[in-house]
């Protein structure tokens, strides 16, 4: 992503944002409400065209990708998905295989592997509309995992998640963060918006701090999560220590 | 939750369709027994002898039951596609203004068509469609184009705006219709209101041909959209991220629905509730997957419509009820029971 800016209806939503995500990296985007995090994800995923600047994915401008071809290498989990039709969970996850034609047998294998990865294999036959919020979110996560489960034509794969842990209990938050790190270990690039600074610190290789559409800081968790930055962006005084369990920064407010 | 496997349903409907077609052919003011039916079949097919029975069977009832089957398929298929497009199981083809636009068009022709006709401005009819039918088709199409244009900006077509535009245009068309009725005499009023009830009384092979075009188009186009419609149920941006070309999908669905329902309304008036109910039944039986929902709805629509039309013909012999009255009588209570069920289940977010 190269010096991207976006104006919409006269409002400057993004101003001169640049960063790159390599395979194996986890980039978390932090910032207060209205900072432009979701907008950034929209531009990054090619849903909105940037007003200025350029987004490239695997060496090619994102707008030049054919939609189906892009969907085989890039999966996006937006916030608050709504689905009011009584699909079974297995069918919902299977929708992630829409851009592929690998055959029913392979797709079924991938769907059960993806459900297992989010601790959802027991949900497989349940009706999606009857699940709790957290369970729905896990099924949606399994759907985007199934979408890019296998590399196609040796393209690097990227997973874009907008607050993936928003309605999870503690155990499933941890599980998701572990899963994200594990995927990065397999060569995925991961970009995700998180609100919890400490969760972000646990799994990010790099962080991007956003405020009013501008980059405030971009770098390692240690460089981004300083008391100074936190006060500047969130208006909250905080102490930053080292997490005795993981060695990552620990923000105490 | 799922009452049937999709294959079971498709097979059951494939068997039921010829059965109800034959029963429809046997029933009516003149009842024909199965042995007489087989005898007539033999006579007219093998020996080329025509009789009163063969005239009734092949010139009157056969086009009628086939027209009913095709209409049911078109309306139900359009309903399934609309519910997918609006991501709402309570959507109906009339939401985009086709039906009310067609009413206004038909009303206009009934009231003012005579004046134009006597002035020699318009031909008496085209390929078996009466002037009223042409007026209805034109009115329906104009309404859909208005609704679509209102909802479309550079950023794409907003389904929510389309819903509101559909309501607005329907209201406008309703007002025009009232205006035309105001200028109508008694005979015209009766024709307008009979037309609005929906009837297959004027069935003939030309009409069968026209509706068959719409039905074939749906059979050819709709099933290919089923994967994309499934993805669309997740949400528009989700579908886009799954590689679906959402804007062209919407355009295709709206065009084919408008065309199909426009033709259906033009040939037979407004047959209510088929587009709403039939996909719903199919969904209750086999689930919401469009790969099975669309063929299931097309077939179920055909079967249901043949049954409803047969009932319309025999319930008050020797007279005949408008078919739309039967479907509405069956449909309205069903709709209410659906609402009650969903309220009980606390189904959130069904209405937009």
Explain this structure.
The complex is a heterodimer of chains A (253) and B (352). With 253 residues, chain A is α/β, with parallel strands linked by helices. Chain A contains 9 helices and 13 strands. In chain A, the strands form 4 sheets. In chain A, strands 7-8-9-3-10-11 form a 6-stranded mixed beta sheet, sandwiched between helices. In chain A, a hairpin with a 2-residue loop joins strand 1 and strand 2. The longest helix of chain A has 16 residues, at 170-185. Chain A is globular. The model of chain B is unreliable at 120-128 and 346-352 (pLDDT under 50). Chain B has a two-stranded antiparallel sheet. Chain B has a two-stranded antiparallel ribbon with strand order 3-4. By secondary structure, chain B is mainly α. Chain B has one domain (6-345): ABC transporter involved in vitamin B12 uptake, BtuC, CATH 1.10.3470. In chain B, a hairpin with a 2-residue loop joins strand 3 and strand 4 (156-157). The longest helix of chain B has 34 residues, at 52-85. The chains are: A alpha/beta (253), B mainly alpha (352). At the A-B interface, helix 2, strand 7 and helix 3 of A face helix 9 and helix 10 of B.
